[in-house]
Specification:
The complex is a heterodimer of chains A (111) and B (481). By secondary structure, chain A is mostly helical. Chain A has five helices and two strands, in the order αααααββ. Chain A has a domain at 1-44: Histone, subunit A (Orthogonal Bundle), CATH 1.10.20.60. In chain A, strands 1-2 form a two-stranded antiparallel sheet. In chain A, β1 and β2 form a beta hairpin. Chain B folds into three domains: 9-231, Amidase signature (AS) enzymes, CATH 3.90.1300.10; 261-302 and 387-480, 3-Layer(aba) Sandwich (D-Maltodextrin-Binding Protein, domain 2); 308-372, no CATH class. In chain B, α5 runs parallel beside α6 (181-187), α9 (306-321) packs across α11 (353-366) and α9 crosses α12. The chains are: A mainly alpha (111), B alpha/beta (481). Chains A and B meet through α1, α2, α3 and α4 of A and α9, α10, α11, α12 and α13 of B.
Chain lengths: 111, 481
Amino acid sequence: MTISREDVLRVAELAQLELTPEEAELYRGQLDEILSYIGKLQKLDVTNVEPMTQMSFGAAELVASSSASLSEAESDLREDKLRPCNIADAVLEQAPDAAKPFFRVPKVIER
Amino acid sequence: MSAATPWTVASIQGALRAKKVSAREITTEFYANIDRRNPDLNAYLTLSRERAFAQADRVDVATACGEKLGSLAGVPIAVKDVISTAGVRTTCGSKILETYVPPYDATAVARLEKAGAVILGKTNCDEFAMGSSNENSAYGPVRNPVALDRVPGGSSGGSAAAVAAGMAVAALGTDTGGSIRQPGACCGVPAMMPTYGRVSRYGLIAFASSLDRIGPFATNVADTASIMAVIAGHDENDATSAAVPSTDYAAGIEQAVQGMRIGVPDEYFGEGLDSQVKEKVLAGITLLEKLGCRRVSLKMPHTEYAIATYYIIATAEASSNLARYDGVRYGLRVPGATLIDMYRKTRERGFGAEVKRRLMLGTYALSSGYYDAYYLRAQKVRALIARDFGEAFQKVDAIVTPTAPTPAFKLGEKTSDPLQMYLADIYTVTGSLAGIPGISVPCGITREKLPIGMQILGPHFSEARILQLARAFEKAGGFTI
């Protein structure tokens, strides 16, 4: 057993999930099985392997036989400048509890 | 039995321009098909009749005025319910977004409409695109139009079923680990995952940001290419979209494939592969050889680590992306005494079992003390898997494999065993991790008459070549081999 009930409850808290006792037990067993399957990655030697963190750029470099125009993709971040975005009202319409121009939530700070 | 529509992008363009039919009549015909088939199949969650008929009328007015029509004028298209549509409810197959109406259109949807396409409605899918069978939808499973007791595949099962059952000419789906290609295989229709960054994801509701892609389902390769030509291309609203020029993918598909080198990796034909699937896909490869392709045996040694790698990376990213569902800004809110209490109650009630399972797994993989052993290691193995492809594409022009290890399985068959369900994606997650494009094309049926899919993978931005191979295969009778 690699994952305990306490682990499950700790992770649920981090993930902001309020699990029922039945769910906690179900997930403990299932996560245990999945994690032991995933354990096969520990067998591989990954010394000197750089982690692949950037898809748009990293993958293209690794898969070497791509088209010549990839360099264009790399230079393609747009200029960081302000643009008008007048959607506040439309966005607030979707809020469960809006007090324009705010989202209302349970009290966070007690005075 | 399946009954895909005889209408194609080309036949609709011809009929509209010859004034043999109006876009309104075509739209009406498809809603009649939906009214007839959808109660059994549950492929559509929301129909956008008003928007569809308004668009059809715009096309008809343009035709009457002799204006130039777009390349998809009057073509009825279904959109997976994880892709935003302004004014049309978008649920992601989740209770947490049951009443969510996006204030804007995804770029892919906007481009389809600009080209004249008629958006019929939103299709069912696994909750937040997490699943391989469509059974994780909060709104009930989709049934496979070919065999109603079977799953349509997932997560884009509704889009695949809609096209296979004649409820749309084409559809948009999303693919994170196989969610376009695998349902395409299960339902017997072509289904394409483009290169990472090829199609804008602006307005796609995120699952795993380093993997998610939008792509088309259609009834034939030419239509798949026509949809790709419209949705591909750079979008400044998506920082991950590539500035690589896109081409008219439909224009070159009839070119001969003679001399192309086709890689066949041993690792995709081993244990776990259904014998009938194996037989048909090998027959498919033989057909490609008859068309002048040269077969090259490959070894891709990291293939067996792909599922483990995928389920760490995808769930880790999901645990971050889905943190936004907290009852504050949109979607469900379950009241709580404190802010944290509200978050937890909202998420507990709003998310289904598979989403919670993946959020737990992803949070665990990213948590203090486990990050190096799981997430960081998975990113390194991902690099090794991508390197396998890089080395393969030095030797071959494309790689051909089965799309899925088995044909469509029965509803309920794998729901109690998440790991078995994850293994349905064993041949598709590799291309997802490497960021490369792939298409699943029909490759005959089993003795039980269930569709089989053959996957063609290519290097980054090789969509035109993959479509060319798929078209040559289709033309030579590969779909019914």
